[in-house]
Write a structure and sequence with these properties.
The protein is about 40% helix and about 25% strand. By secondary structure, it is an alpha+beta fold. It binds zinc ion.
Length: about 200
Amino acid sequence: MAVNLAGGQLPCGRPVNTLWNHIAYGTVDEHIRGCEYCQVALAQIRRLLMATGDTTGDMTGDMTGARTGERVRPPADLPRRVMAVIRAQLPPAPRVMLPGPSGNRLNISEQAVAFILRAAGDSVDGVRARSCRLTAAAPGVSTDADLELSISLRYGMPAPAAARAVRAAVRAAARAQLGLTLDRVDIDVVDIHLA
Ligand SMILES: [Zn+2]
């Protein structure tokens, strides 16, 4: 059996990124000890660490110090290294493909696009942008896309006016910074914040 470390969550419900605690500190956890998914995930992470030349994967096999009675102190940057190894296993992020001159293409990761559009949404007073999903109008090279943006609204701010301002801001940023025309911009108010 192998588990998908890139999926964020194991089939048993444990988030993958909490497993580093177990690797780093050998924390006693009945669930992890008895769960086959967690055990497989831990073995995979240790193998990855060793494959990347990180001997920590070896060393952390028994961090509770059952043999020595001492607690081994893990390197401070272990969580970061474990997550870097896990992230390296992620499939390449989806790309937005824009046409360039004479058939050249400009590929931009959806993550980069989302960053720009979220920042544009954030620039509107009383709005905090949350998640952002872009759907290209056509597969392959396209200059058109639909956007779904979820936002939090400052208490007292009228939602229709905020949505209008956010639409204008993300459309302008998409055109100016990406050369992308947003057709449909759906705004989802998921939260209200104070001040
Ligand atoms: Zn589990």
